[in-house]
């Protein structure tokens, strides 16, 4: 069969450009970066975007959420499982491989709309013979255990003999951080070579989890296809004849299947996939993605590059979120690499969760249930440290025990001791904040009764035992902590921690009162079980009310922690190639704690999370002060600075930080994207679009928007799920339209835009006209300015609330 000489074999299949991530040519030094960027997955399983032939330096990565292990005394880490994608082709003793053989051209595309990776490479052998290799593959969103790949080979100059070899490569290992070296976390358990499939089962060393693979290879020449069981074959292929291989791979672990059932289930899924065949499986996969994008796509009209970059971040969020398993969470680098050993941080609750709350609430619930299931471990952690209640670990994996390593590499490459697990207790309040966020936006009270409430109560109880009462000042204080700004260890009264702890206590009191009123019997059962007396809850309120909040009257600024303003104050006088601040050469990294440099959004994070608490003037002062001192040495930081930049009316800063966050992993801005996608940055970037430029907030149980579209954007179009209803939001400079796309379970929904309140019913839409502005300048301060209709809005809100409670 003659192969068409397209410049790119898949041109006709590709989605529009703003949905593509492209790689043209091959640069060996960029291989690991591309592998991370081209990761494919479905929340259950992810595979790094390797080239099938595994060139030198390739880092295959196959990860299943929740499968962690450790060897001996090492630290628990996400296991790099056998690689099923490997497909090797040799001819005349030469391997088709861009490092080993010359390439005439090489192009790869991640089509984010369909979640397919396409590849077209033309090789030139040592004998100057040209060979075309094309491939496409997907990790099915329709069937979470399935990976499907297709490889096509065409000799272009003469008939050639090839050796094709494919397998499930069990020779992979984790890269190992620092001085650990490579580590294998599993051993073979069962191998079977059947007539038409291969079965491989491996077992992890410590946890004894079984991971089963079944795969079948289909070989097609012209219209004739047959399935083979062998893994290696020699075939003679005619000039311009295309030989096609399709590999169906099923991966399943014993986490949710009885070990005795694992083989039967895995092989069964493979059989049914093969019956369906490539085209139907592809079709199901594409349909599942189409549905997913109908909700998740944020279209930035007028700036296709920003839209594309935002899709890239969103794509990586989607493939990280598990819809079916409430016992796994998302690690700081998703399932796209081994950075941070796959551990779970506050990143999940504060940076990732909002995307899922407003997009796929089931995933959000699962992420929070992951914490609920680890409440006992958190209680033990608190007790071991001499506190009451529950203290969640700074880094968490499968068991919920603390698994922060004691050592890490600093920015200057030196090994430093890590104290985050002893001091970053704010994670407790972050989790409580996230629970409140989730329940408020979804109305899922059942989650509270399923353990959410207990987490709120036990984290509050922790703070009550963690604070100390300063009798002289008649206030509660929290000593020996580290805030989000990890440049400063062992500080007292970190403003972020104190304010978030107070919030944790407040919401525990509020939810306790509400749920006790609504279901006294159920409440009594829980209170009885955790031995919670009413006076303990009363005490929490007192602590929250008297929690010290560091503030300098002289400077009229929040003091990030006690004594911060006495530290050395240096100026940032250099920016790097990404226009981000560089540590002055006069300051050593070892001395960073003695300066006023801030690692990442800390007070600024607080301004965002508790934005109602501060006046516009306060926000402005604190934003600019902190922004001037922040080095953004964490990818979590820029997007938050974008959001708060908009809050204070500084569109220029907001756009600068947004652009930075958008391209964090597309351009490897932090230099370590090869170790995996910066999940929190991806989540925060989505928040910068929706909470920032669309100005979405929850205000008194109502969803409100204050659009801040930059001048060069024509509009922004997206969906959010609010209390189980899908709202389609479309905003331009002139107006905002909101449509309720599915039937509301609770009657009309109220939405507020530019301070104006309107009601939505099923399939109806409401329109809000943007207030007239004399010049663009006035847009900058539009955020917090109360509209003249303020009183009327307040009246309407009260009326709506009354109606809902009736
Ligand atoms: C940041 C933390 C973050 C962690 C994982 C660190 O560099 O300072 O806030 O949780 O990375 O992303």
Percent in strands: 15-25%
Shape: globular
DSSP helix count?
18
Q: What is the share of helical residues?
A: 25-40%
Unreliable residue stretches = 1-5, 777-793, 796-806
Please give the alpha-carbon distance between the first and last residues. Answer: 72 Å
Which hetero ligands occur in this complex? beta-D-glucopyranose
- Please state the structural category: alpha+beta
What's the Cα radius of gyration? 28 Å
| Largest sheet properties | 10 strands, antiparallel
Summarize this structure as a short list of keywords or feature phrases.
binds beta-D-glucopyranose, five-stranded antiparallel beta sheet, ten-stranded antiparallel beta sheet, disordered C terminus, 23% strand, single chain, 18 helices, disordered N terminus, 806 residues, alpha+beta
State the gist of this model:
32% of the residues lie in helices and 23% in strands.
Word description of this protein:
There is one protein chain. With about 800 residues, this protein is of the alpha+beta class. Helices cover about 30% and strands about 25% of the residues. Helix 4 (about 345-355) crosses helix 17 (about 680-695), helix 8 (about 425-440) packs antiparallel against helix 9 (about 445-465) and helix 9 (about 445-465) crosses helix 10. The radius of gyration is 28 Å and the shape is globular. Residues about 1-5, about 775-795 and about 795-805 have low confidence and may be disordered. Beta-D-glucopyranose binds near residues 332, 346, 484 and 680.
